[in-house]
Description:
By secondary structure, the protein is an alpha/beta fold. Helix 1 crosses helix 2 (19-27) and helix 4 packs antiparallel against helix 5. The chain has a five-stranded mixed beta sheet with strand order 1-2-3-4-5, sandwiched between helices. Helices cover 42% and strands 15% of the residues.
Amino acid sequence: MSVLSISKDEAEKWLANYPRLFDLYQRSKKDDLNNYFNFEELIPWAAANFAEIEKILSKLDAKSWEKLRTKALSFVATDHPLRRYEQLFNHLNEARGYVFLTDQGYTQIDFIEPKQNKKGAPQSPDLFAIKAGSSVVLEVKTVNESDENLSPDASWRNEAVTVRRNLSSEFKDKIISTIGQALCQLNSYPSDRKIAFLIIRFDHGQKTAWHLYAELKDFIATQTKDGIEIYYESQF
């Protein structure tokens, strides 16, 4: 069932409360059965889950939203068997980098036209901005949950969650690898300042363990090198 097939009132509510998500849906392949927005259960929990996303997207100027929307459109109907619509939200998370730059006082902010290498991997950073004659490039990377955590057979689905005492080596390796990818992209574009902005989603067993957040902060501080600044947000 699509959003628009529910009722005219619901559609108008979407337009009023989530104009940019509604815009994304309107421009997508609405008849595709894999369309992210074509779920009967979407509307009841939309307010709780989409309010923050819409708030972030609303801070983009019209030109920047158009560019980000174009990138995200390709993934509205891309449903991975395990990771579902992860790629869609990876792209929407780029808006968080835009907001970060506005908070830093940058006013001339633009999404960079994406480039890929011969293997199809991203080769350019996400954003370029200027403030008082000084330039910055920023790459947003989302570090998502592990395959094990997302598995239908994951232990946390059927038994009490065991809180880890330390960040796992696999998790740290993923952080290091992600920063390395961002570093290559940032160095491909000339600027005075280079920023890797990480969105980090913990596995179950780490989400409520506040000592691990402190460990993460210290660990990321050790990864700052080659003039690259690293900032991050943790998501539940």
